[in-house]
Amino acid sequence: MIFDYDSTYFNPEHVLECGQIFRFTPFKEGYLVYSADKACYVYTSGNKTVVESEDSDYFYNFFDLDRDYSKIVEGAKAQGVPLLSNSAEKCKGLRLLNQNREEMIYSFIISQNNNIPRIKGIISRICEGLGEKREFKYGQYSAFPTSKALSEAGVEFFKRVGCGYRDRFLAETSGRIVNEGISHLENLDFKTLKKQLLTYIGIGEKVADCIALFGFSKRESFPVDVWLEKVYREDFGGELKDRSKITQYFTERFGGNSGYFQQYLFYGKRLNL
């Protein structure tokens, strides 16, 4: 099945290359994208971005296509911050994804103190080693493993695929999720969700903010990493040193748009806009 959307506010490169997702690969005119056990091919043709998938409803929600991003872009530009304005204008095709929650928990545990190419490689090896093999019109792929498969893999598997010190975090957190599930996390407000996420081994402040933003669609979340610390100092004239206080500064300033503006700032700084 195929559907399309105005490419002005849906640019696959902006969406996929901004650091919020790790399971995608360049393909033909666009990208192959994987989420949980599903796949799609996304590309731009003329003034439309096209999504091809057997799971069109899933990817319509995944790409957040019910939301009007023109208002978010204008809100970012109205802040009067050059980096934020430039990034929102030049990268207005960026959309925040609604990703699989369990996949985001594990992916962002892997992400801590790591770089994007290495994160992508580790996740790919985990999927190849433990994920169910699936067929898509553009080739075979490996689904993201279930928590049960992850919990049964053992610390040695995670060590072997390059997880480093995170091996124990993945083993223990997957075991806990098998025992408890995550349904109790799904309808919590942002602050309560973050507090609960922090009780999982391997999840600190920044990782919890990322999981809340990219997995649980808590758009008031504002993860702060080394790039956002740089943004805070250089573009907002900030002097705070504590990341949690920097996060609080941004969330108080941007409110419910915090997550959107965080991605514009993060991506814009990396692109040197």
Low-confidence residue ranges: none
Mean pLDDT: 96
Could you tell me the strand content as a percent range?
5-15%
Tell me the number of strands.
7
Q: Radius of gyration from the CA trace?
A: 18 Å
Chain-wise SSE layout:
Blueprint: E1 2-6, H1 12-16, E2 24-27, E3 30-35, E4 38-45, E5 48-52, H2 56-62, H3 69-77, H4 82-90, H5 101-111, H6 116-130, E6 133-136, E7 139-142, H7 147-153, H8 155-160, H9 166-180, H10 190-197, H11 205-214, H12 226-236, H13 243-254, H14 258-270
Antiparallel strand pairs: 1-5, 2-3, 3-4, 4-5, 6-7
Helix pairs in contact: 3-4, 4-14, 5-11, 7-9, 10-11
Quick take:
This protein is of the alpha+beta class and 273 residues long.
Can you offer a commentary on this structure?
This protein is α+β, with helices and mostly antiparallel strands. Helix content is 51%, strand content 13%. The strands form two sheets. The protein has a five-stranded antiparallel β-sheet with strand order 1-5-4-3-2. β4 (38-45) and β5 form a beta hairpin. The longest helix has 15 residues, at 116-130. It is globular. The mean pLDDT is 96.
Key descriptive features of the protein:
five-stranded antiparallel sheet; 273 residues; alpha+beta; two-stranded antiparallel ribbon
